[in-house]
Amino acid sequence: MRFIALLATAVGLAGCASTQAATDPQDAFFAALTAHCGKAYAGQLVSEQEADAAMRGKQMVMHVRRCTPDRIEIPFHIAGMADDGGWDRSRTWIVTRTATGLRLKHDHRHADGSADEVTMYGGDTLTPESAIRQEFPVDAESIELFERTGRSVSTTNVWAIETTDTGYVYELRRAGRLFRVAFDYSQPVAPPPAPWGW
After folding, report:
1. CB atoms near residue 12 (< 10 Å)
2. Side-chain half-sphere of 152: how many Cα atoms within 13 Å?
3. What is the dihedral of CA 34, 98, 143, 145, to 10 degrees?
4. Distance from C-alpha of 25 to C-alpha of 157, rounded to nearest angstrom
5. Are 88 and 77 in contact (CB under 8 A)?
6. If DSSP states are collapsed to H, E and C, what string results for the chain?
7. CB under 8 Å to 115, separation ≥6 — which residues?
8. What percent of the chain has pLDDT over 90?
9. CA pair distance 48, 109, nearest whole angstrom
10. How far is residue 138's CA from residue 145's CA, in Å, rounded to a whole number?
11. How far apart (Å, rounded) are the C-alpha atoms in residues 34 and 50?
12. Using CA atoms, how far apart are residues 17 and 21, in angstroms rounded to an integer?
């Protein structure tokens, strides 16, 4: 009888553990992004700062190009922004799992595929946040990169990614700075070519 009671308790606790895991905000967020793997969506600049005037009105596409259980690669393409007037395919957002949460890094390449001087910067989550929004404050490695390359203004950056039933948003903010681009999940487009260097 005692064994049956212990077994029932163990099963009950296991049920609680699986429910807790299923509702972990970062697991839910990662799963929501992964559900779009292989798909691409049209979007646009939605912030209004003068610093981004060159991007205003440009066609934009985000492509959830490659997913593994621990990594999601999302190239960001902008029409008319390359040196030759074509698509700028220099940026890829990379979301990975870590031992303590999620990490966002920015892979920046030149048209010949070589790495930009400022690449693989980003940060790690500090809290679980929510299933629809994760924030990534700048990490120490990125601060050192920004200072070394004369971009100390970026040492307080906080990036965020949102994914809801209707769309995806990428955001950069710091004091006096806000950049947001939004993509509509109801507007799928043909997947674009690989980003530069990939």
Report:
1. 10
2. 3
3. -80
4. 23
5. yes
6. CHHHHHHHHHHHHHHHHHHHHHCCHHHHHHHHHHCCCCCEEEEEECCCCHHHHHHCCCCEEEECCEEECCEEEEEEEECCCCCCCCCEEEEEEEEEECCCCEEEEEEEECCCCCECCCCCEEEECCCCCCCCEEEEEECHHHHHHHHHCCCHHHHHCEEEEEECCCEEEEEEEECCEEEEEEEEEEEEECCCCCCCCC
7. 107, 108, 109, 197
8. 88
9. 26
10. 11
11. 33
12. 6
Residue carrying structure tokens 């009105």: 57
Query: Which amino acid is present at 84?
Result: D
pLDDT 10s per residue in the chain (198 long)? 444 444 444 444 444 444 444 589 999 999 999 999 999 999 999 999 999 999 999 999 999 999 999 999 999 999 999 999 999 999 999 999 999 999 999 999 999 999 999 999 999 999 999 999 999 999 999 999 999 999 999 999 999 999 999 999 999 999 999 999 999 999 999 999 999 999
Instruction: Determine the Cα angle at 100 with ends 132 and 170, to 5°.
Output: 35
Q: Are strands 60-63 and 40-45 parallel, antiparallel or unpaired?
A: antiparallel
CA 120 – CA 135 distance, rounded (Å): 17
Name the β-bridge partners of 173.
158, 178
